[in-house]
Amino acid sequence: MILSAHAVFANIDLNAFWAQNSWIGEKLATATWETFYMVIICTALSYLFGLPLGVILVTTEAGHVLENRWVNRSLGVIVNATRSIPFIIFLILVIPFTRLVVGTSIGTTASMVPLTLAAIPFVARMVETSFKEIQWGLIEAAVSMGANAWQVIAKVLIPEAMPSIILGVAITTINLVSYSAMAGIVGGGGLGTLAYYYGYQRYEDLIMWATVIVLIIFVQCVQVLGDKMAARAINKRR
Amino acid sequence: MIEIKNLTKIYHTAHQDILALDDVSLSVKRGEIFGIIGLSGAGKSTLIRCINMLEKPTRGSIMVDGQDITLLKQQQLRTARQKIGIIFQQFNLLSSRTVFDNVKFPLEITGIPAQAARQRVEQLLDMVGLSDKARVYPEQLSGGQKQRVGIARALANDPKILLSDEATSALDPQTTRSILKLLKDINRQLNLTILLITHDMNVIKQICDRVAVINNSRIEEVGDVLSIFSNPQTPTAQSFIKAIINKDDPQEYRKDLIKQHGDKYSRLIRVSFIGASAGDPVISAMIKRFDVDANILHGNIDRVKDVPFGHLTLELIGSRSGVERSMSFLQDNGLDIEVL
User: Fold this and answer.
1) Domain end: B189, B208, B243, which one?
2) How many domains is chain B partitioned into structurally?
3) Does the beta-carbon distance from A145 to B105 stay under 8 Å?
4) Contact at 8 Å (CB) between B238 and B201?
5) Strand, coil or helix: A29
6) What residue numbers bound the domain in which B80 lies?
7) CATH number of the domain that residue B130 is part of
8) Is the CB of B246 inside 8 Å of chain A's CB atoms?
9) Does B257 share its domain with B238?
């Protein structure tokens, strides 16, 4: 059905075309907005929880400022376990929890629960990687000046890793766009739902293609914005 | 100021135990610049890292200004560390902060009020000659400038001691000299005790009062820099000194010596200078007084901690008695003579 795009666009009568398909524009705008706010809120929430988790993952390692083998190991296991469940299964798995939190398992608000839950461990690992890029000497310098763990985290780890963390935010956002489409298939709303119910089940090729184009533009924008912000954070230092 | 007693550090690895420091005892006096020299792997780095407890000693005690740093609890240790400045080979400046904010960093850690902190930073930057770079990020600085920022940062909380972990090893010789000069000035102005580690005898020569030679995890020799330079006891110390003071090979001159000086008598000698006598015109006095010629074949006069130090290889030519009396004249003036 995707392949027949040529046939769709081959229709020359534009006026008739718009008259017939104006409802698509409305649907598309609504769905795009849903996806947009779903992804933005999920990204924000996943960093709200994932960033501290990443900090704990790094700082509880052996020799680090909050060294704690037990916490480090258990957290590592939980993060890995969550990340090894394919999202489409995870989505169904957490339905009882979703119902508990938002009262339903259908719609955009409901799909933000599994999206955020799945993104948190991902963010934790991204943040962990960013922190590990920092030269160990900087942390040691702060410790040797008498800094406590909190000061090392707030004044060394986070500011030094900021450009890398910003790039991580872009990657996370993009991942959430594609995860949100999966959530859309089980009634999560947004562009995923639109593409699935109209594009796939009703054979509306135009909807399918329009969705794809919107997604491409959206992802491009996020990446370019992320790159720019990270570059600005780095260039400021030069 | 720093009293290290029976310090032992053993690293436990999966395969073996590595002895990094073996029963090290040292005493650093208030206001002196104390150098520890050793090759890489000798244990000097572990030693300096033990003094601010970046490494936890296996045994032994480290008193800093009367307080045993090895016995402190976490909170006490943090407070003690605020009074132990340290500078690093790799500078370790925060790339996310300007020069100004890097120097302010330790003041934030201690919780100095913002206004007082600003004044202190300005004063420190002025001291290291970087007031005009306050708003610049470290990436824009040269190595020497970075180390100046490091020094300003290390002095921010008025430390009792300053540790220098190979602070000049990443710098070129000229920059090294200017950084060492700065350290020496600070040492004099603030009467600050400095403990430095290095593998470069030039650093010891230029600013240290006393030096310890570390080899194979043990302190082999401790003493006045001048006495170690003039009379190194251990092979390690000797090789360090040989590396910077190139004595000549007398065999080279022997061939030339066959050259006759008519009926004149000649002797090949090596004169060693230590201390003030190098400043006196002893050689020229000798030439005039005993009517001898002095043919200078090789010479090397250096300064060790501002004291002239070196040697001259001379061929003395004249009457037999003139040459003999010249040599005793030199000895009477406190010079060491070696007939080659």
Assistant:
1) B243
2) 2
3) yes
4) no
5) helix
6) 2-243
7) 3.40.50.300
8) no
9) no
Which neighbouring-strand residues pair with B273? Answer: B310
B216 and B274 share one domain: no
Mutate to test the interface with B, among A131, A144, A158, A164 (most CBs of B within 10 A): A144
A130, containing H or E segment? helix A108-132
- B96 to chain A: which residues are within 8 Å by CB? 159-160, 162, 237
- The residue from B212, B243, B274 where one domain ends is B243
Look up the ipTM and state it: 0.82
Q: Would the CB atoms of B139 and A238 count as touching at under 8 Å? A: yes
Kindly identify which residue of chain B lies nearest to residue A158, measuring between CA atoms. B96
Show residues of chain B in contact with A235, CB under 8 Å. Answer: none
User: Could you tell me if B92 lies within 8 Å of chain A, comparing CB atoms?
Assistant: yes
* B109 CB within 8 Å of a chain A CB: yes
Give the residue numbers in A contacting B (CB under 8 Å), as ranges. 135, 137-138, 140-148, 151, 155-156, 159-160, 162, 236-238
Give, for all 340 residues of chain B, the pLDDT tens digit: 999 999 999 998 888 888 999 999 999 999 999 999 998 888 899 999 999 999 999 999 999 998 999 999 999 999 999 999 999 999 999 999 999 999 999 999 999 999 999 999 999 999 999 999 999 999 999 999 999 999 999 999 999 999 999 999 999 999 999 999 999 999 999 999 999 999 998 899 889 999 999 999 999 999 998 888 877 888 888 888 877 766 666 666 666 665 656 667 888 888 877 765 555 678 888 888 888 888 888 887 777 766 777 778 888 888 888 888 888 888 888 787 888 7
Structural domain A2-235, CATH architecture: Orthogonal Bundle (1.10)
